[in-house]
Structure formats: structure tokens, C-alpha cells
Design brief:
The chain is mainly β. Helices cover 0% and strands 64% of the residues. β3 and β4 form a beta hairpin. The radius of gyration is 20 Å and the shape is rod-shaped.
């Protein structure tokens, strides 16, 4: 999991902001599908909602020929 935090210090009357703010966080999930493939999915959670950053399947090796 990765987070994008913004922190401010002091007093800004022109553009007031929170002392600590989370803009976006990202989580990565990886799983073995079977002995020959792996799946990877990365999701981001932000102000606009949930987005799929990346998603792919990797072939680890080819199955044996019959």
C-alpha cells in the first residue's frame, strides 16, 4: 500500500489547508492463478473514487506438451 500525504505548517490566510491531508492511496494485489500464470492488479483510491491503475496476467512458463 502506498499513500500520497500532504502536510502544511504555519498559518496561510490566503489558501488555508489542513495540517495533514491524504490525496490518494494505492494498493497492489498479486496472486498465483495456476502453476503457469500470475495476476497483478493495482487500484488507486482518491478524491474521484476507485480507479484501476494496472491489471495484467504474466505467464510464468508454458504447460508441458501432451
Amino acid at each position: 500500500m502506498i499513500g500520497d500525504f500532504i502536510g502544511t505548517a504555519g498559518h496561510n490566510p490566503v489558501a488555508p489547508g489542513r495540517a495533514l491531508e491524504l490525496h490518494e492511496s494505492e494498493v497492489g494485489m498479486q496472486a498465483i492463478i495456476d502453476p503457469y500464470a500470475r495476476a497483478d492488479v493495482f487500484l488507486s483510491f482518491g478524491e474521484e473514487g476507485v480507479n484501476v491503475e494496472e491489471g495484467y496476467i504474466t505467464s510464468l512458463r508454458f504447460p508441458p506438451a501432451c
